[in-house]
Amino acid sequence: MRVLVTGGAGYIGSVTVEALVAAGHEPVVLDDCSTGHAGAVPAGVTHLRQNYTVEASTMAALRDHRIDAILHCAARSLVGESIREPARYYRQNVAGGIALLDAARAAGVDRVVFSSTAAVYGEPEITPIPEDAPLRPINPYGETKRTFEGALEWYGRAYGMRSVSLRYFNAAGASAAFGEVHDPETHLIPNILRSVERNEELTLFGGDYPTADGTPIRDYIHVIDLADAHIRALEATGADDAPGFAAYNLGSGTGFSVLQVVAAAEAVVGHAIPTRIGPRREGDPPVLIASTDRARETLGWEPRHGTLAEMIGSAWTWRQGHPAGYADGA
Ligand SMILES: NC(=O)c1ccc[n+]([C@@H]2O[C@H](COP(=O)([O-])OP(=O)(O)OC[C@H]3O[C@@H](n4cnc5c(N)ncnc54)[C@H](O)[C@@H]3O)[C@@H](O)[C@H]2O)c1
């Protein structure tokens, strides 16, 4: 399968492109490197350094490379920034996403897999969260992802598009070759590891949540398990009886508090990690844990690297091998 991967030079995109190649598919990366890195595109994979929101050039890319399916990983994805600058999120994630879908229609590409997020649920009433829980995002990031999911569903009904939305919980870990480099970095595990590298105290966002130790609980999923789910989802869109739209949670189904993650990181690095409790961060629900039954039953997917030791250990190994991040320095 020839797959256009928007955001293929990013964290999750790069590991997924690597897995697509290993599975015998032909990915083409479309990424403007606004938050990603040219060095994160595996050697031998075509990298179109362009903006997916520009319909004409995206359509040309789909046609020129005779693309069968799109994996849409590119997005603006910072919760805090989305609250300060919602226009940027609607313009990129919604309007830009529609430009991508219309480019796909014009080019005759009718299979799409989308990087969605647990943020579409907002503050859920049921834990673990099933896919049919109400979608009530509490920030523009989650709202724009939810809106694009709606577009996928309606494009399925009207135009015969077949799409899968993958609602990731917290991606973590690295492959041997590709890891996580964001600036700014808002994710817990890379921030813990950076504080270890710099020998700095780590500030945690809030210690007064209604959880056993007062810190928020999240569901972490190894990026290699995510990559595997993407390939299964892409293949599912090609089935004769593929639905117009389906959504799947991707998590390990287990929750860990921030302090449990810090303790697991201490075991990986072999020493104590000094922390202090700071104020809460806007837009952080207390508990987010995925119900993963649907992905297991329908896609035959199973997370295989679900321990914090594997996720933090692989991220730590990757960082030690890449102390300056990617060679392009971006
Ligand atoms: N990392 C997580 O834990 C997590 C959790 C839930 C959902 N997601 C979603 O997964 C996707 C990937 O996340 P990530 O952590 O790998 O992010 P990332 O920032 O590392 O990757 C995104 C990539 O998209 C590219 N990009 C952005 N806008 C573009 C544009 N207009 N044209 C072309 N390329 C563009 C960036 O350069 C970058 O390489 C995002 O859609 C994000 O919302 C991530």
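^ nicotinamide-adenine-dinucleotide complex. The first strand starts at residue 2 and ends at 6. Residues 6 and 60 are 14 Å apart (CA to CA).
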